[in-house]
Amino acid sequence: MRPTVHDIAAAAGVSLATVDRVLNQRPGVRHVTREKVETAIRDLGYVRDVAAANLAKGRVYPLTFILPASDNSFMHGLNAEIRAAIARSVAERTDIRIVEVPAFDPQALVRELEMLAAEKPSGVALVATDAPDVRAAVDRLVKDGIPVVTLVSDLTGSLRHHYAGVDNIAAGRTAARLLGRFLGGAKGEIAILAGSMLVRDHRERLEGFAAVMAQEFPALHLLSVLEGRDDPEVAHMLIADALAKNDGIIGIYSLGAGNRGLIRALKEKAVDRALTVIAHELTAHTRAALLDGTIDAILNQDAGHEVRSAIRVLKAKADGLSVIDAQERIRLDIFLKDNLP
Amino acid sequence: MRPTVHDIAAAAGVSLATVDRVLNQRPGVRHVTREKVETAIRDLGYVRDVAAANLAKGRVYPLTFILPASDNSFMHGLNAEIRAAIARSVAERTDIRIVEVPAFDPQALVRELEMLAAEKPSGVALVATDAPDVRAAVDRLVKDGIPVVTLVSDLTGSLRHHYAGVDNIAAGRTAARLLGRFLGGAKGEIAILAGSMLVRDHRERLEGFAAVMAQEFPALHLLSVLEGRDDPEVAHMLIADALAKNDGIIGIYSLGAGNRGLIRALKEKAVDRALTVIAHELTAHTRAALLDGTIDAILNQDAGHEVRSAIRVLKAKADGLSVIDAQERIRLDIFLKDNLP
DNA sequence: CTGTTAGCGCATTCAA
DNA sequence: TTGAATGCGCTAACAG
């Protein structure tokens, strides 16, 4: 039978309350007493029963998710996954709130983070816009003792406890190798469609992509990046235009959202052209395009995994517990038409 | 505040014990009383607090994992992941035991399953050898009310509750498309190295691979399957021999284990040949080979995820709870040298 | 500074 | 067929 607080109390010759005090590092225990209890804990190999503790405390974890108010399938999916987590709240003792802030707007994000500092939730998850002010606001939360997890796009250099998202440099590199290998030594131009160079994840994907292309596929020439602001209309316009003007394009890498527009442009302008296309994020649109051959491969991050992982990590940090690193690693999913979920 | 058993008891005008009886469908309750309680449960929207229930019961979940005693990196990895889960046993209220049985030996597996029927653990996970007797033994366990999960290799047609492993037909198809695209229209022969056609996962991979190859890459001709019994020595011999005898081989698909031997053969016999190679399972050996260019892509199943998933599912089934399907889906990981974990 | 006591939500004797 | 009482492991008043 595993030891309980009673066993420790007996072994240390103190009462339950005192054991509880040292266990939860509360003040009001003489140094020697504390030592005695700590020794007993170590000797008996005590591990606290978190479930019982939570029951006694009636603990719930108020968590806040801050998302950009972007109208694209990926963000809708992320939102849906959080709502699914909300539906499980009772069993998981969470109390989750979703807050939307204008996209690509650091100041709005900062304001929200400052309000949260007052609310003192058990944890905060945010899709970070990469700006110094945001970093400062996040650091402030962390210093106040509130666990913070970045979601989808990281905030390197900040004190955030954890990043729940894919390695975007690796994603870009993978896209490059896939595209290069699929094109098998052909010579030509590659168009690149991004959302915005203001968000870190897109910048990193581009960086990884360009690096591998330059190093391993010199026969392929990268055109300058098209910024579609993750908006299907803008993306459509940009791609249609590029295809019309440039006959040498043989490959496209779409590293942001708004792929609806890309796909429409391809179906209108490129039915008769041999084009190899790699895109990010599995949505209803990209899935259909992969199946009908318009897209050759999709790189994806599992939004459900990201949300569940963020919640697990925030709860663990709130309790000072450790996590299973391998379980929290968000992998880069590669989908061909054969291994779709 | 969410309703508790007390609230139900009050609402139904009965005692806690009676509420508990209907909650756990125990006998000794008049029909009318039962109805009253059930109405109260529904009206108040009661959901049982599983953590509290487990505390009161002092519940632990004795689980048994049955693995083939195969000496390859993948099985070693699987074993290690189970041991990692054992290390977490205290917190997760599990009591996990690993049993090894001779590989590819249905009768040994059946004997073990029959012994388990007597022990009545909370759940059983097994790497299934595909045979009618095994199916019958599994069905027997299920009918006895013991949750059963197949791991890595499934047992279709049996009553097992869940399969924690990848879709191997999809894996084979994906391997074919990757190989075909990487070879970009070249014409030549493809060597296939399997472990044994007696295990379902290998048969399914081959099936998927052959289907896509026949349909989409007619210029590539599949040689007859080499069975390496997941043994590095045998694999080495078979591949070295094939390469020596056949100059037309331009691609290799290794769908089983024992890749150490394959890699050694490639380094000895094929340094001067342009060979595209796809293999299964990420191990220290295949990882190194991917990085140095000997292998072009690795298809993988995350053993850690499989083990954690099997445990979650077995616990849930033992309690009659539902699982999050997306969380329990084991995906096919595709690794290029750029996205290694 | 330390101890006593009463729960958290549920399961389980033992009586009635 | 039903109910009262006790305890699971832990926390948190409230006394001392």
Automatic annotation (TrEMBL), chains A, B:
Gene3D superfamilies on file: 3.40.50.2300, lambda repressor-like DNA-binding domains (1.10.260.40)
This protein's UniProt keywords: DNA-binding, Transcription, Transcription regulation
Pfam family for this entry, one: Peripla_BP_4
Annotated HTH lacI-type domain residues: 3-57
Alphabetical list of InterPro entries matching this protein: HTH_LacI, Lambda_DNA-bd_dom_sf, Peripla_BP_I, SBP_2_dom
Name by which UniProt lists this protein: LacI family transcriptional regulator
Species annotation: Rhizobium viscosum
